[in-house]
Hints:
Blueprint: H1 8-35, H2 40-49, H3 67-80, H4 82-93, H5 96-99, H6 103-110, E1 119-122, E2 130-135, E3 138-143, E4 157-164, E5 171-178, E6 182-184, E7 201-203, E8 207-211, E9 215-217, H7 218-223, H8 239-266, H9 283-318, H10 325-355, H11 367-379, H12 386-397
Parallel strand pairs: 1-4, 2-4
Antiparallel strand pairs: 2-3, 3-8, 4-5, 5-9, 6-7
Helix pairs in contact: 1-2, 1-3, 3-4, 3-8, 4-8, 8-9, 8-10, 8-11, 9-10, 10-11, 10-12
Amino acid sequence: MSASSGTPDRLASVLDKVRALGPALRERALDAERAGRHSDETIAELDATGAFAIGSPAEYGGHELTVRQQLDVVSEVAKWDGSAGWIVWVGASTNWIPAGSGARVVKEVYAPEWVGPRVAASSHFPASRGRARRTGGGWIISGGPWTFGSDSLWAPYTNLGCIAHDSDGPYLVGVQVPRDELRFLDDWQVAGMRGTGSVSSTLVQEELFVPEHRVVDFRDVTGGTLDNGLAGSLWKAPTLGWAFSLMAGMSIGIAQGALERFLDRSAGRPVRGTTYKNQLDAPMTHLMLAEVHSKIQSATAITRANAEETDRLGALAAAGTPADGAYMQRFSARVLVEAAYAAKWCAEAIELLQRNSGSTAIMESEPIQRAWRDARVITLHGALNLEALSENYGRLMAGSQPHEFAGITTLDRFAPPAPGKSS
């Protein structure tokens, strides 16, 4: 089993191209917000930077960067526009879903030529409205709509969460559905991340036949039990470490972009109610900037450490010496709660910048107010419930098991509850 080790030159090339595109991303952000999605032109230009290939298999021409390297790319894109960062984050961090669905799905997703993200995902939580039932040679799926389908507007497949009812059911399955079998709803009217186009979808027909290989018990996907034919250690890395280190990186990038914008627009700007003619000369600004720096730096430090540990654990598993279940459970719980804290700190940092930017910073055209809204939306993501994640990690610290629940962020798959312990 070989290690995934994206070369520094490849990472540098992607970052250079993203930085060159960055001013255009920022300039187009308002139009993307008003449209509720980024344009196909922007998606194509992001694709040309290599940003959508950072987490794709080397066997099919992908860059297959390490998680630590992917983190830098997601942060750089998000620095220019949070919605674009979200699209790239989803494009990278959902690659584990087709990879966990077996070699045949992997080939279908990555072998064809494609411009844009390769896969999207929607409604992989117990409240899924999708239904799946077995039939000859496959499954019939129905129900919906499937909500929060980030990247589904541009991906060739969307993996839909469905509840299967059979002799082993009910349980969650991931269903790989081609985009021409889906109808996308115009329902993405939201407070932030407006350009992501994270619309809901329904089936074109009331029911859809799906071949057997495209419907996978989600416990197999999260557990990585199916052979995917991929050699790199990235495909053995803990999925929560991969997905949520990159998610925190999105918050970090947005905060870094807001800080740069604040410093640029504050030069020579007077502070009302004082004699300061240049906001950057005011001690109150200096104190605020130090706090902003400390929040962003704290988020960056824990996120980079988690990304590096994700890569290390992937390499151990690829070498046939995986970490034990108890460690994996605790690490995954830690990544989740620390991603939530990173998002919180970055949102708080941007709020400080926004509050010290004056009334003109509320204008639609001002990137700081967009960063403020986008960063707060990340903190409201269903997987970043800070209080619930804190309780689960605190339970592990105290020697108890976390809550048992179905879905992407379940922790009980790593270590079974100890005898006599409540869930």
